[in-house]
Amino acid sequence: MDAATDSCSDAHRPAHGERLRRLAAVARARRDRRPVRQPPLAGRSARSSDEKPIASAPSGNAPLILLGEVRTCLVPDSTALGRDMLEELLALIPGRRMRWRERPTTLATSPTTAVGVDCQLATRPGGGVRAVGTVATNALVFGGRVLQSSVHTTVVPAEASNRQTWSHYLTRVGVMEVISRVTAATGAELANTFLAAGEQPDGTLDLASISQRLLARIRMDMRLDQHPPMQTRTARLRWAARIADVPQPMLTFQLQDELVRTVLVTVRDESELAVAHRFCEELALHDWLLTVADSVVEEADLYPPSSPESAELIAPLITHLAHLWMPGAHAPAPLRGLWKQLDHEPGFTREWQARVGQLRDRMSVAILAAMRPSAINTPD
Fold it and tell me: Are 276 and 241 spatial neighbours (Cβ–Cβ below 8 Å)?
């Protein structure tokens, strides 16, 4: 029997009053040293005994990284699509209408759809970053001529280590929750590995496949006549955006091959991160225009400058695409300054002006060459 119990039994022994007082003092001291159990904080549920804590990001539940991919191609139709046609083509969700901008060039954006994913994220070998959530997808048409499929997802630390039901994830479109361990270096590691990755192994987040499916769905629509005014290829822009302590938004742009580019965008806060995908969509458009112009120059070089074949290659670009070059026209205001970086290095606008000027000169030479015989044969 311990001392506390002895003190209770000795309460009926007046002869031992002094001993009783000493034992009571010891019991009070022990009771005062016991920790007091506090109620859980307001708005936070108590953790069950079988739930394992997870390491959170350095800034709590702030986004770790934003990952995305944009595919750009020419609309497979002989004419520029008008608003009524685009309303039908981009009706990806029944009952929801597309978003439309008229100035300075038209831009049609489909309703956002969600694709559920439960997979590993590309990381270093043995990293083991598992995330569950949704990827946001959109189809866009610029100027009735250029089609894009854009997909992106924001990676955040999960609030609990156990996997939730799909109803939880479907309420957060375009968000993936990491349910494995997160460290301070996880965001930068995910960005670097995602941008450097080629074909994704099975079980790893594959934004390329999601983007390709959406693009194929639009391109194969029966309302398109499949007779574009020129032949072009599809370009890919794989991008990542993250928050860092920088004085202004910054980017790193790289050419991986003839049709694949990677971009890392660094922003200052979550408000800029939330609109990074819009800047990347506009960047993908202008990079594709440059790619098409380079391709036309290469093909036109196979023929004499004054030949009809050269003019036939150049005319569709000048007629249908040249007017779409407007850097910053649809970019979000906080990120328009990134175009100054691109115009300084690698010099997007300078290259475009040089290419289009070269093609216009060739068209003029071809027209003059075609007019010369008729001018010579014209009677006085």
Answer: yes
